[in-house]
Specification:
Blueprint (H helix, E strand, L loop, with lengths): L1 H15 L14 E5 L2 H7 L7 E4 L16 E2 L4 E5 L5 E5 L13 E3 L4 E3 L6 E3 L6 E4 H6 L5 E6 L6 E4 L1
Antiparallel strand pairs: 1-3, 1-11, 2-4, 4-5, 5-10, 6-7, 7-8, 8-9, 10-11
Length: 162
């Protein structure tokens, strides 16, 4: 009886580790992007499924977006997307394999995958919540760091935060 239970527990431990995702490799950093009005969300947010936008203050992206002293864009910047259902999702742009703020994933509009230009790992940001699909990230189970997107409080229409 004890032997059967031991084998069952061992199998559970082995198989539960196969699907683990490490989306915590990017160092924690403050995230706060606010869209005070529907109009601002319509210009700088994501309007539909498979839509995406990058927020990188030092590169003035997106062009024309007004960054304030209380705007924070994570470790490598923010990737804001509309998932396959059109729901907004946000990820840190930094590749979790490289772990450097200047090595940022880029969305390929043909494949609808985010790819790291350095290690060439790819991530599904539209239907698999930033899970890796190929490359070293897939081999090691490194996913993109996710952030919250939702209605803001008070005078804020939408907000990206950690």
């Amino acid at each position: 009886m004890h032997r059967s239970l031991s084998i069952l527990l061992l199998c559970a431990a082995v198989f539960s580790g196969c699907d683990s995702l490490d989306d915590d490799r990017i160092p924690p950093a403050a995230v706060n992007i606010t869209f005070p009005t529907v109009a601002e969300w319509n210009v700088y947010g994501v309007a539909s499924a498979l839509d995406h936008r990058r927020f990188i203050p030092e590169k003035h992206l997106p062009a024309g977006f007004y960054y304030t002293a209380s705007t924070y864009c994570g470790f490598g910047g923010i990737l804001l997307v509309g998932d396959v259902m059109g729901n907004p999702m946000a990820y840190d742009l930094a590749c979790p394999v490289e772990c450097r703020s200047a090595v940022r994933v880029v969305v390929d509009s043909e494949t609808n995958l985010a790819e790291c230009p350095q290690c060439h790992s790819t991530y599904d940001v539209f239907s698999l919540q930033g899970h890796p699909t190929s490359g070293e990230a897939a081999e090691k189970g490194y996913g993109l760091r996710r952030y919250r997107v939702g209605p803001g409080r008070g005078t804020v229409y939408m907000q990206v935060s950690n």
